[in-house]
């Protein structure tokens, strides 16, 4: 892993596959680090002929931490945002979209297949709509163009005060992933523990979660914006997602011209190893099809 300067911040990233292969940029979600993208997924996509780039969003993992306004002020911002009152967030989803494009600049990637999960899907949607020249295809996973209400039990878990120490963080993350995982792809106990331990050992920034959440809460609807997406788009969503309910995926697909919605029965809001083969086939197949369709245009012909 290494770091690059992008949009005025330091972005930690990791790559898989040949440097000259078509790039897939993986954008992770709320409070999650690049390691939340399974190694097996990244390696599988690389074997399918892609250069895979995963990275820590600003304020998490090993990327730049952002200044804190203090827990009291941050809690106040969260409350105001939840009530749809005016808030000046520490940073926005648009800032994070510019981070992603800045990382592409730093890595010499002219255009990439952009794949985002959850909040990362929101960021990917912005990049695809506002920088169509940089996006070969879009894959939006378990995401939404607007704020949607999670199940009550999940909302309660989201709004708990930040973990006080690493041990508490491990317990909470483990419980949360079990809460939001779907019935068809449950992680094993050892898999889940390994994922959580790896994440907390790598970086422990409990306050950054709230700042990411404020960025989501203060973001305007992207429904009208998504009408400008021209990249071939795949929308993946689980039928049992309790954090971003299925309606979020349906709205994303409806807003993007020509988008294909793939509903995965029994999938929740988690990327367990059991789901990786399906993700590889769906994402790689979508990217290869997009590249094949673009070849006649590149050669000066017509599709």
UniProtKB/TrEMBL annotation:
Single Gene Ontology MF annotation: triacylglycerol lipase activity
Residue intervals of the AB hydrolase-1 domain: 22-271
Highest taxon of source: Bacteria
UniProt cross-references to InterPro entries, sorted A to Z: AB_hydrolase, AB_hydrolase_1, AB_hydrolase_fold
GO biological process: glycerolipid catabolic process
UniProt-recorded name of the protein: Pimeloyl-ACP methyl ester carboxylesterase
UniProt lineage: Bacteria, Pseudomonadati, Pseudomonadota, Alphaproteobacteria, Hyphomicrobiales
